[in-house]
Protein backbone atom coordinates (compact mmCIF):
# COMPACT_ATOMS: atom_id res chain seq x y z
CA UNK A 1 0.00 0.00 0.00
CA UNK A 2 1.43 3.35 -1.09
CA UNK A 3 1.28 5.84 1.72
CA UNK A 4 2.87 9.10 2.85
CA UNK A 5 2.32 10.02 6.48
CA UNK A 6 3.27 13.39 7.91
CA UNK A 7 3.84 14.03 11.59
CA UNK A 8 5.36 16.64 13.87
CA UNK A 9 2.89 19.47 13.55
CA UNK A 10 1.50 21.36 16.50
CA UNK A 11 1.23 24.69 18.26
CA UNK A 12 4.38 26.74 18.67
CA UNK A 13 5.12 30.30 19.68
CA UNK A 14 6.59 32.79 17.22
CA UNK A 15 10.32 32.27 16.94
CA UNK A 16 10.02 28.62 17.86
CA UNK A 17 10.93 25.48 15.95
CA UNK A 18 9.27 22.30 14.76
CA UNK A 19 10.48 19.34 12.75
CA UNK A 20 8.03 17.69 10.41
CA UNK A 21 8.51 14.13 9.21
CA UNK A 22 7.06 12.37 6.20
CA UNK A 23 7.40 8.60 6.18
CA UNK A 24 6.93 6.67 2.96
CA UNK A 25 5.39 3.22 2.78
CA UNK A 26 5.28 1.21 -0.40
CA UNK A 27 7.70 3.38 -2.33
CA UNK A 28 11.35 4.25 -1.95
CA UNK A 29 11.87 7.87 -1.11
CA UNK A 30 15.23 7.95 -2.92
CA UNK A 31 13.49 7.27 -6.25
CA UNK A 32 11.20 10.26 -6.08
CA UNK A 33 11.38 14.01 -6.15
CA UNK A 34 9.89 15.11 -2.85
CA UNK A 35 8.08 18.33 -2.14
CA UNK A 36 6.72 20.07 0.90
CA UNK A 37 3.64 22.20 0.33
CA UNK A 38 1.51 24.18 2.72
CA UNK A 39 -1.95 25.63 2.61
CA UNK A 40 -3.13 28.38 4.89
CA UNK A 41 -6.84 29.06 5.42
CA UNK A 42 -8.30 30.84 2.44
CA UNK A 43 -5.10 30.60 0.43
CA UNK A 44 -3.82 28.46 -2.40
CA UNK A 45 -1.45 25.57 -1.79
CA UNK A 46 2.11 26.87 -1.79
CA UNK A 47 5.24 24.93 -2.66
CA UNK A 48 7.90 25.64 -0.06
CA UNK A 49 10.63 23.07 -0.58
CA UNK A 50 11.68 20.50 -3.14
CA UNK A 51 14.40 17.86 -3.27
CA UNK A 52 15.14 16.16 -6.58
CA UNK A 53 15.84 12.44 -6.15
CA UNK A 54 19.31 12.62 -7.68
CA UNK A 55 20.42 15.64 -5.67
CA UNK A 56 20.91 16.49 -2.01
CA UNK A 57 20.48 20.24 -2.27
CA UNK A 58 16.85 21.24 -1.78
CA UNK A 59 15.26 24.30 -3.30
CA UNK A 60 13.22 26.65 -1.15
CA UNK A 61 10.59 29.29 -1.63
CA UNK A 62 11.69 32.80 -0.70
CA UNK A 63 9.14 32.82 2.11
CA UNK A 64 11.04 30.10 4.02
CA UNK A 65 14.60 30.36 2.73
CA UNK A 66 17.10 30.60 5.55
CA UNK A 67 14.61 29.34 8.14
CA UNK A 68 13.51 25.92 6.86
CA UNK A 69 15.73 22.97 6.01
CA UNK A 70 14.62 19.91 4.09
CA UNK A 71 16.48 16.62 4.41
CA UNK A 72 16.07 12.97 3.50
CA UNK A 73 17.01 9.74 5.26
CA UNK A 74 16.90 6.96 2.70
CA UNK A 75 17.51 4.26 5.31
CA UNK A 76 14.39 5.34 7.20
CA UNK A 77 12.46 6.13 4.02
CA UNK A 78 11.62 9.47 5.54
CA UNK A 79 11.97 13.12 4.65
CA UNK A 80 12.08 15.96 7.14
CA UNK A 81 11.36 19.65 7.26
CA UNK A 82 13.16 21.47 10.05
CA UNK A 83 11.40 24.76 10.65
CA UNK A 84 13.14 27.46 12.69
CA UNK A 85 12.22 31.04 13.36
CA UNK A 86 8.55 30.30 12.88
CA UNK A 87 6.22 33.21 12.20
CA UNK A 88 2.43 33.50 12.50
CA UNK A 89 2.24 33.58 8.71
CA UNK A 90 3.72 30.07 8.65
CA UNK A 91 0.46 28.77 10.11
CA UNK A 92 -0.90 26.22 7.64
CA UNK A 93 -1.49 22.57 6.95
CA UNK A 94 1.79 21.13 5.70
CA UNK A 95 1.82 18.35 3.13
CA UNK A 96 4.54 16.19 1.67
CA UNK A 97 4.13 14.99 -1.88
CA UNK A 98 6.10 12.89 -4.32
CA UNK A 99 6.59 12.78 -8.04
CA UNK A 100 8.57 10.26 -10.08
CA UNK A 101 10.62 12.85 -11.94
CA UNK A 102 13.94 14.64 -12.10
CA UNK A 103 12.65 18.14 -11.55
CA UNK A 104 10.52 20.18 -9.19
CA UNK A 105 6.91 20.73 -10.20
CA UNK A 106 3.72 22.29 -8.96
CA UNK A 107 1.04 20.54 -6.93
CA UNK A 108 -0.89 19.46 -10.03
CA UNK A 109 1.98 17.17 -11.06
CA UNK A 110 2.34 15.36 -7.75
CA UNK A 111 1.50 11.67 -7.86
CA UNK A 112 1.34 10.91 -4.15
CA UNK A 113 0.22 13.02 -1.20
CA UNK A 114 0.14 12.75 2.53
CA UNK A 115 -2.92 13.89 4.45
CA UNK A 116 -1.12 16.82 6.03
CA UNK A 117 -0.16 18.00 9.47
CA UNK A 118 -1.31 21.28 11.02
CA UNK A 119 1.25 23.85 12.17
CA UNK A 120 -0.05 26.75 14.22
CA UNK A 121 2.26 29.61 15.16
CA UNK A 122 0.67 31.76 17.80
CA UNK A 123 1.10 33.24 21.25
What features would you describe in this structure?
The chain is mostly beta strands and 123 residues long. 0% of the residues lie in helices and 47% in strands. It has no helices and eleven strands. Strands 2, 4, 5, 6, 9, 10 and 11 form a seven-stranded mixed β-sheet that branches. Strands 1-3-8-7 form a four-stranded antiparallel β-sheet, with no helix packed on it. The chain is globular, with a radius of gyration of 13 Å. The termini are far apart.
Number of DSSP helical runs? 0
Rg for CA atoms:
13 Å
Largest sheet: 7 strands, mixed
Helix share of residues?
under 10%
C-alpha end-to-end distance: 39 Å
- Element string (H = helix, E = strand): EEEEEEEEEEE
Mean pLDDT: 95
Give me the count of strands. Answer: 11
Ranges with pLDDT <50 over ≥5 residues? none
What is the beta-strand fraction?
A: over 45%
Shape from CA axes?
globular
Q: Which structural class should the secondary elements be placed in?
A: mainly beta
